[in-house]
């Protein structure tokens, strides 16, 4: 599942007329980088949620056949449902097996094949070194177990995770809900795992970071 329902307030005015996942970097929309890498990793069925200007996403990507994929869409009401609410709404499209979730507004070279090699987990997050705009980080890692951020070295959630459908069992599919409360509950229960990623990762959250990524990709 690719999360593409955010309004992209920090990206305005670019997102006033273009959904953030369709903003170009390196000559192609951000979300197309994901689709190409998912297809190369062997994924075939993709679910994309959307809200703000969602019709433009469907028009741009179609059924996914040009990438050898089958794309299903999960529309959300104006204002969207936040991460957990959006995933809960899409569960009927996602099946009964664990599934990969990727934020539509990141650029990352984490090997998506890793998701298929993981043993069944309730929730498994990919973490990266803290970027300058999020120096405090989100979590700590003790082996594979995720812990609350504290005085020790912290890491930032990359916006990439593998979830079991049961992780969202208690979430109403039509109400906004953030992901963090579910993650916190899993940490408290000792069931949240994760792994570090030392490769490339960009949170494309501002026009400046988008322009920097575009330059670094060399309009490939």
Written account of the structure:
- The chain has about 220 residues and is an alpha/beta fold.
- It has a single domain (about 1-215), classed as Spore Coat Polysaccharide Biosynthesis Protein SpsA, Chain A (Alpha-Beta Complex).
- Helices cover about 25% and strands about 25% of the residues.
- It is built from 6 helices and 13 strands.
- The strands form 4 sheets. It has a 7-stranded mixed sheet.
- The longest helix has 13 residues, at about 80-95.
- The protein is globular and about 40 Å long.
- The two termini are about 25 Å apart.
- About 40% of the residues are buried.
- The model has no long low-confidence stretch (mean pLDDT about 95).
CATH superfamily: Spore Coat Polysaccharide Biosynthesis Protein SpsA, Chain A
DSSP summary, beta strand count: 13
The number of distinct structural domains comes to: 1
Mean of all residue-level pLDDT scores: 93
The residue ranges in which pLDDT falls below 50 over 5 or more consecutive positions are none
CATH class: Alpha Beta
First-last Cα distance: 25 Å
Largest sheet: 7 strands, mixed
CATH-derived topology: Spore Coat Polysaccharide Biosynthesis Protein SpsA, Chain A
Coarse morphology:
globular
Estimate the strand proportion: 25-35%
Order of helices and strands: EEEHEHEHEEHEEEEHEEH
Radius of gyration: 17 Å
Strand order of the largest sheet: 5-4-1-6-11-8-12
Based on the coordinates given, report the CATH architecture. Answer: Alpha-Beta Complex
- The percentage helix is 25-40%
Total of DSSP H or I helical runs spanning 4+ residues: 6
Structural class by secondary-structure content: alpha/beta
Oligomer: single chain
